[in-house]
């Protein structure tokens, strides 16, 4: 039977008509007129996921503490919303698309678990870590181990910087971005995997002394985290690197060469093995190797612009008591230095390593946020940069000014600290916060108690618009000079 043109057209119309109808309903009618979110201000024009961070700042400046970035995703900017989303009763769970980015070896680690009040696996994994990252442990039972790692790593850092200063061809110049990561990475390897640096030996984990090795690592590290060309191959390289560290540590423990790192021993004691252990340890290492290099680089950039501030910092650092054999400063004295803490806090405020949206999903029963009932299953987020640059809390919020944290006004300091969320808060605070801060302070001391720095090249230092946000250029060239003792 022949089908004429009119009949064919009619059939195609009947078949295809539901598609535009569905799109009109889901993209226009429902979001604008029927959705329970319809009364919440909508970013105009609506943008697709992911929404650029500057657009999020602008949306909150125009619309207030709650705004729809897309017809079905919300951004919030108040402390009450942040506490509800991330802290109260364990906080909201993470969306699946978000956590899947952090899976390695095909298994879930603590970061790639959804979290939230109903995620028992996440709660159990977090308990498995015990107190190994808590300040009470780092400054107490774990102090000797941290001091041993610090003595070794900082001696290597100072040795490289001394060579840079002496080098005739370089004139004291060095790109510090990868080097900063290398210093923090070696701290992390020592604490996570152990004294044997994962059993890999100097040639495999000598990031501070071996420029080629650290560039190889960070090349793969960057391609994987950013999803750039070659990301799949980079992920395999990273997993191989993590396996090498874990298996090398296990061999060292078995033949008595090493006790294994503090974190390695703790997780093994809870029965975590093989790829589960590799995934968890690699996640800790990557976080240490990435966020701290961003913070150190921006801190050095800002301090290098201000010779008088650098002199104040050097004077404060040189007031510390030190071990004669290693020159490692007293932990508690270092941690208590007010100017150092102000400089570090201000750097984390202005140049938060993770400045953008921290994605979550409302629980099935829904939640009240900023006076609106938000049904279950809606994606919500708070951007740390929006909290940190609230002009009602921080005068000239875009200006790096560590002295704001040293004013003689306890109420103002308390208010600013309430809005400081670089490590999150409450039960969802970053478990590595205290370890990260003491490592940062050790490295800053190793540099500014001995050297002054000048900027040689600082093009494109604005932060990337991504989850882990380093400088666009991935480069900062400084000139180092010895200070008189």
From TrEMBL:
The UniProt annotation places heme binding at 430
The family database entries (Gene3D superfamilies) matched by this protein are listed as: Cytochrome P450
Give the species this sequence originates from: Aaosphaeria arxii CBS 175.79
The record's listing under SUPFAM superfamilies reads:
Cytochrome P450
Q: Which Pfam families match?
A: p450
InterPro entries, per the entry: Cyt_P450, Cyt_P450_CS, Cyt_P450_E_grp-IV, Cyt_P450_sf, Cytochrome_P450_monoxygenase
Q: Which GO terms describe its molecular function?
A: heme binding; iron ion binding; monooxygenase activity; oxidoreductase activity, acting on paired donors, with incorporation or reduction of molecular oxygen
Q: Is Metal-binding set as a keyword in this record?
A: yes
What protein name does the entry list? Cytochrome P450
Q: Which UniProt keywords apply?
A: Heme, Iron, Metal-binding, Monooxygenase, Oxidoreductase
Could you tell me which PANTHER family the record lists for this protein? CYTOCHROME P450 (PTHR24305), CYTOCHROME P450 12A4, MITOCHONDRIAL-RELATED (PTHR24305:SF166)
Q: Which cofactor does it need?
A: heme
Q: Into which family does the record put it? A: Belongs to the cytochrome P450 family.
């Amino acid at each position: 039977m022949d089908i004429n043109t009119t009949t064919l057209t009619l059939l195609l119309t009947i078949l295809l008509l539901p598609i535009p109808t569905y799109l009109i309903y889901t993209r226009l009618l429902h979001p604008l007129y029927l959705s329970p979110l319809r009364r919440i201000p909508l970013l105009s024009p609506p943008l697709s996921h992911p929404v650029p961070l500057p657009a999020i700042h602008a949306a909150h400046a125009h619309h207030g503490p709650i705004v729809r970035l897309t017809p079905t995703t919300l951004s919030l900017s108040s402390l009450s919303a942040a506490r509800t989303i991330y802290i109260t009763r364990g906080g909201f769970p993470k969306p699946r698309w978000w956590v899947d980015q952090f899976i390695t070896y095909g298994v879930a680690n603590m970061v790639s678990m959804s979290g939230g009040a109903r995620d028992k696996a996440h709660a159990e994994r977090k308990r498995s870590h015990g107190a190994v990252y808590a300040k009470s442990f780092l400054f107490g039972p774990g102090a000797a181990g941290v001091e041993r790692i610090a003595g070794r790593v900082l001696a290597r850092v100072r040795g490289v910087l001394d060579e840079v200063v002496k080098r005739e061809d370089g004139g004291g110049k060095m790109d510090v971005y990868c080097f900063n990561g290398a210093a923090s990475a070696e701290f992390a390897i020592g604490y996570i995997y152990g004294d044997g640096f994962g059993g890999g030996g100097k040639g495999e984990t000598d990031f501070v002394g071996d420029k080629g090795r650290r560039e190889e690592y960070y090349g793969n590290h960057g391609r994987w985290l950013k999803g750039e060309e070659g990301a799949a191959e980079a992920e395999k390289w990273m997993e191989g690197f993590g396996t090498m560290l874990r298996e090398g540590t296990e061999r060292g423990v078995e033949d008595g060469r090493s006790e294994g790192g503090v974190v390695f021993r703790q997780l093994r004691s809870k029965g975590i093995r093989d790829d589960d252990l590799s995934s968890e340890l690699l996640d800790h290492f990557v976080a240490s190797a990435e966020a701290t290099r961003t913070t150190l680089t921006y801190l050095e950039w800002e301090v290098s612009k201000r010779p008088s501030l650098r002199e104040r910092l050097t004077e404060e650092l040189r007031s510390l008591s030190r071990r004669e054999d290693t020159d490692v400063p007293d932990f508690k004295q270092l941690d208590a230095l007010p100017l150092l803490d102000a400089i570090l806090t201000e750097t984390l405020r202005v140049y938060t390593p993770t400045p953008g949206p921290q994605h979550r999903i409302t629980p099935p029963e829904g939640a009240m946020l900023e006076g609106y009932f938000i049904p279950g299953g809606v994606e919500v987020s708070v951007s740390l940069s929006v909290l940190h640059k609230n002009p009602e809390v921080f005068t000239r919020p875009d200006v790096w000014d560590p002295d704001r944290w040293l004013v003689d006004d306890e109420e103002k300091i308390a208010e600013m600290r309430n809005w400081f969320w670089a490590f999150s808060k409450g039960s969802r605070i970053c478990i590595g916060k205290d370890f990260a801060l003491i490592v940062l302070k050790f490295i800053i001391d190793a540099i500014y108690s001995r050297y002054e720095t000048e900027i040689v090249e600082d093009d494109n230092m604005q932060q990337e618009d991504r989850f882990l946000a380093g400088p666009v250029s991935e480069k900062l060239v400084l000139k180092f000079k010895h200070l008189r003792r």
